[in-house]
Amino acid sequence: MEVLRGSVRTYAWGSRTHLAELLGEEVPSPHPQAELWLGAHRDEPSQLLAGDTPGDAPGNGGDATRSLADVLRDDPQGALGPSRRQRWSDRLPYLLKVLAAEEPLSLQAHPSAEQAAAGYAREEAAGVPRTAAERNYPDPLPKPELLCALTEFHALAGFRDPAETVALLRALDVRALDHHTELLAAQPDADGLRALFTTWITLPQRAVDDLVPALLDGCVAHAREHGPFTTEARTLLDLGERYPGDAGVLAALLLNRFVLAPGQCLYQPAGSPHAYLAGAGVELMANSDNVLRCGLTPKHVDVPELLRVLDFAPGPPTLLPGEGRGPVTRFTPSEYFSLARCAFAGEEADLPDDGVDLGVEGPRIVVTVEGSVRLRTSRGQCREVPRGTAAWLPACDGPVTVAPVDGPALAFVAADGLGV
Ligand SMILES: [Zn+2]
Hints:
Elements: E1 2-5, E2 7-9, H1 18-23, E3 35-38, E4 47-49, E5 65-67, H2 68-74, H3 76-80, H4 82-87, E6 94-101, E7 107-109, H5 113-125, E8 145-149, E9 153-159, H6 162-172, H7 178-186, H8 190-201, H9 205-224, H10 230-242, H11 248-252, E10 255-260, E11 265-268, E12 274-286, E13 292-295, H12 303-309, E14 318-319, E15 328-331, E16 338-344, E17 356-357, E18 364-370, E19 372-377, E20 382-386, E21 390-393, E22 400-404, E23 409-415
Antiparallel strand pairs: 1-4, 1-21, 2-3, 3-6, 4-5, 6-12, 7-13, 8-11, 8-12, 9-10, 9-12, 11-14, 15-16, 16-23, 17-22, 18-21, 18-23, 19-20, 19-22
The structure holds zinc ion (ZN).
């Protein structure tokens, strides 16, 4: 068990307060801070801090560091354990992030395992450089992801029930969209959604430049009257202002607009379109960069490939129920990862002295976002992980318990989805 130091990504949509407060840095931060990465991703592997003695407050130790990627390379047996080395090809299968969005992220979807493997092979064979802007599949792996809200978290995800979308379109009352509304009303299913989405995403720019302002006029009028879709209208106005002339504003009309409460967990299966709008959360994903953008971005949009990957089946967003009793709730939607949310009120009467068994083995990463927790390995090693810090637990540490230190605490534990 060692202290793990992640790195902050400063994308323009990030928050100037959330991560700075979490990390105990100057608030507001000089740049927007979007994501804290904890893992062994090739672009930004986290660092292990040497020099802390067990029980010390982490982060105060020496400055000597080793990259987690190097640790995995030098001792895959200790890091992953014998049974997981082969399954994960000596790599860490997941990437853990704390995400803080002040502004919307791009509208996107991720491929299935088969699509990712085939797409990667195709682009490798074609000699597309892995860092090229038009590269869709820099990795051979799928990229399922989950997000567990830390604050109220606003998002668009999954195709809304078409009947609801028809009601929304009629309520916005945009004459230029009447024809599209009636197409969807005549075929209120996945095929109708595919037809309308395809129409919008392939419109000539001239047509988009006419339609989007007309749509936004409808949104202004609807919001002014406090109509039933005022939240949706405000979101479209916000997106239209940030991305004028972007067909993704039209596509956003088709998606569920919802808010997660803190502790709720959203999953993005392959093919599900989604855009995170605002809020902070803990995100856990397969260690892959395979993203197909659908709009709301200045970046490359590969429409034919996107249409192959998108799942047009309508339905509500996938909220994970979570398993477990007491302070630990576990979300395991994929073999690549599992997230445990450890929420201690600090007054648990029935907590064993050593704390709660985490119930997962293999390579684990712990990050604390409130209070402080104490981790204890089966080998007797013990360490406190206070707010804003993280720990790396290699497979060779065996079973680990977690307990709060002096009062309420909230920590998250990432593991793979293979269990014990
Ligand atoms: Zn995504």
